[in-house]
Write a structure and sequence with these properties.
By secondary structure, the protein is mainly alpha-helical. The protein is built from 18 helices and no strands.
Length: about 500
C-alpha cells in the first residue's frame, strides 16, 4: 500500500471510528437508559413497527448510494436526479404505510400498532431528504463532518427519547427516538454541506444509475426482509415480550459487529473503488483491511459473548436476564457480518451486482427451512440456524468474490486464523474466571474485562501477530506525531 493511500485509508478509518464511538456509542448508552425505564413489551411493539419502516426505507434509498460512490465523475445532475427520486418515493411509501397501518396492526393483534406506524412513517420523508447529502460526504471521504453530524444528532434524539420515557410515554418515546433521529440528521446534513440540488430530473442518468443500483436495491431488500423476518416470526408466533427480549439481544449482541462493519465497509468501499484497476494493489490493500478488521471483530465479539451475563445485569437489570443466551449466540452470528460485507463489496466494486443479487437470493432460500424449524422448536434453535447460515454465506461470498482478486477461501482463513485463536483464548479465560469466582456482577464484569485484556495483550506480544503489530505501530506513530507537534499532549 502506498504512503498516500495509507494516509487516506487511515484518515478515513480514524474519523469513521470516531464517528462510531461518538454517535453509536452514545446511541448504545441511550438504549441502555431506555431499557432500564421501559419494558420488554415496549421494545417488542417498536420492533413490529420498525419491520415495515426499515423495508420501506430500502425502496426510498434505492441502492443509489454505492452507484454514485462507484461512479468516477458525478455531476450535480446525477445527485439531483437521485435526490428527486428519493423525495418522490419517500412521500409515496409514507402514504402506503399510513393507509395499510390497520392491516399491519391486525397481523400481530396489537391495536396500538396502527397509530404507531402512522406517526413513525414520517421517517421515510426525513430519510429521503438526507440520502444524497450523506452520499456526497462519503464520496469525498469527509468522515470528519459526518462524525460531527452523527454526534449532534445523537444528542438531540437521545435527549427527546429519554425525557419522554421518564415522563411515562412508554413505547411512544421509542417512536420519538426513531423519527427525531432521521429529522435531525437530515437537518444537520443540509446545514453542514454546501451542495444544493438543481430541480431537473434526467431520465438518461437515472437509467444509467438504475441499471447498477436496481440489483443492489433488490439485494438489500432481500437482506432486510431476511433480517426483519425474525422480528416478524417472533412477534407473530411467540409474543410481544419475547420479541422485546430478542430485540434487546440483537441490539446489545450485534451492536459492536454492526458498527465495526459500518466503519470498515463504508471506508474500504470508497478506498478500494479508487484502485480497482490495479489488481495487485487492490488485493494487498484488501488483505490488510480484512486482517485488521477481523482482529478487532474477533476480540470484541467473542469477549462480549463471554461477559454477557454480568454485562446484562449491570447495564439493564435482572428483568432482562432471558436476553443472555440470545445475546451470546448472536455474538457468533455477528462475527460474520464484517466478513460477509467486505467480501460482497468486491463484487459491487467490480460492477457485478448481478452476481451479488443471485447470491442473496440463494442465501435467503437456504434460511427458510431454518426459520420454519425455529417456529416449532423455539427461538434458540432459530438463532443456531442463523449461525449455520452465516457460515454458509461466508463461504459462498468469498468463493465468488475471491476470483476477481485471486484471493481464495483458504488464503483468507489462513490470514485471519491467528487473530481468531487469540480471541478464543481470551474468551475461554473469561469463561473460566466467571465459573471460578463468586462476587457481585459489577466486580465480576471488571475482573473479566481485566483478565481478558491482559491475556489478549500477552498473547499478541508473545506470538507477534502481524496485524496487531501493524495497528500498534500505526497508533504509536500517531501518538508520537501528536506529541512532537504539541509538547503538552501527554
Amino acid at each position: 500500500m502506498s504512503d498516500t493511500l495509507k494516509q487516506k485509508t487511515f484518515s478515513g478509518f480514524s474519523w469513521s471510528f470516531l464517528d462510531t464511538v461518538a454517535s453509536h456509542g452514545l446511541n448504545f448508552v441511550i438504549g441502555v437508559i431506555l431499557a432500564r425505564i421501559l419494558s420488554p413489551r415496549d421494545f417488542g411493539l417498536a420492533g413490529m413497527m420498525i419491520i415495515f419502516i426499515t423495508i420501506s426505507n430500502s425502496f426510498v434509498s434505492g441502492g443509489f448510494g454505492k452507484a454514485l460512490i462507484r461512479k468516477r465523475d458525478c455531476s450535480n445532475q446525477d445527485y439531483s436526479t437521485v435526490f428527486i427520486y428519493n423525495i418522490v418515493l419517500g412521500i409515496v411509501f409514507y402514504f402506503i404505510l399510513f393507509f395499510s397501518s390497520g392491516f399491519i396492526s391486525s397481523i400481530f393483534s396489537e391495536p396500538q400498532l396502527q397509530s404507531l406506524v402512522q406517526v413513525a412513517g414520517i421517517i421515510l420523508i426525513f430519510h429521503s431528504l438526507g440520502v444524497v447529502p450523506e452520499i456526497i460526504l462519503f464520496k469525498i471521504i469527509d468522515f470528519k463532518t459526518h462524525a460531527k453530524i452523527s454526534f449532534a444528532t445523537s444528542i438531540c434524539y437521545g435527549s427527546i427519547a429519554i425525557t419522554m420515557a421518564l415522563l411515562g410515554y412508554g413505547v411512544w418515546s421509542l417512536v420519538a427516538l426513531s423519527v427525531s433521529r432521521f429529522a435531525f440528521k437530515s437537518l444537520f446534513l443540509w446545514r453542514w454541506i454546501s451542495w444544493r440540488p438543481v430541480w431537473m430530473f434526467s431520465e438518461r442518468l437515472f437509467r444509467e444509475l438504475f441499471r447498477y443500483s436496481s440489483k443492489i436495491m433488490i439485494s438489500n431488500l432481500i437482506e432486510l426482509i431476511y433480517n426483519n423476518l425474525y422480528y416478524f416470526v417472533i412477534g407473530k408466533y411467540f409474543s410481544t415480550i419475547e420479541l422485546g427480549y430478542y430485540i434487546k439481544a440483537d441490539q446489545l449482541g450485534l451492536f459492536p459487529s454492526k458498527y465495526l462493519n459500518n466503519i470498515f465497509s463504508r471506508v474500504s468501499f470508497t478506498i478500494l473503488s479508487g484502485i480497482q484497476e490495479d489488481k495487485i494493489k487492490f488485493r494487498e490493500t484488501y488483505r490488510q483491511i480484512l486482517r485488521s478488521m477481523m482482529l478487532v471483530t474477533f476480540i470484541v465479539m467473542m469477549g462480549i459473548a463471554a461477559i454477557a451475563k454480568p454485562l446484562i445485569i449491570v447495564l439493564i437489570g435482572n428483568k432482562w436476564l432471558p436476553v443472555v443466551i440470545y445475546m451470546q449466540m448472536l455474538c457468533v452470528v455477528g462475527i460474520f457480518f464484517p466478513l460477509n460485507s467486505l467480501n460482497v463489496n468486491i463484487l459491487l466494486i467490480y460492477g457485478r451486482s448481478d452476481i451479488y443479487l443471485k447470491l442473496e437470493i440463494v442465501k435467503k432460500i437456504i434460511i427458510l427451512p431454518i426459520i420454519v424449524t425455529g417456529i416449532y422448536l423455539g427461538i434458540e434453535v432459530m438463532i443456531a440456524g442463523m449461525i449455520i447460515h452465516a457460515i454458509i454465506s461466508y463461504y459462498l461470498n468469498i468463493h465468488f468474490s475471491g476470483k476477481f482478486i485471486d484471493y481464495s477461501f483458504y488464503m483468507q482463513i489462513r490470514d485471519i486464523l491467528p487473530s481468531f485463536l487469540v480471541a478464543l483464548a481470551v474468551s475461554s479465560s473469561i469463561f473460566f474466571v466467571e465459573k471460578s469466582v463468586t462476587v457481585s456482577p459489577f466486580v465480576l464484569l471488571i475482573i473479566s474485562i481485566a483478565i481478558g485484556t491482559g491475556v489478549g495483550f500477552v498473547l499478541f506480544e508473545i506470538f507477534k501477530i502481524r496485524d496487531y503489530l501493524f495497528l500498534k505501530q500505526y497508533l504509536l506513530k500517531k501518538i508520537i506525531s501528536k506529541d512532537q507537534n504539541n509538547p503538552d499532549f501527554l
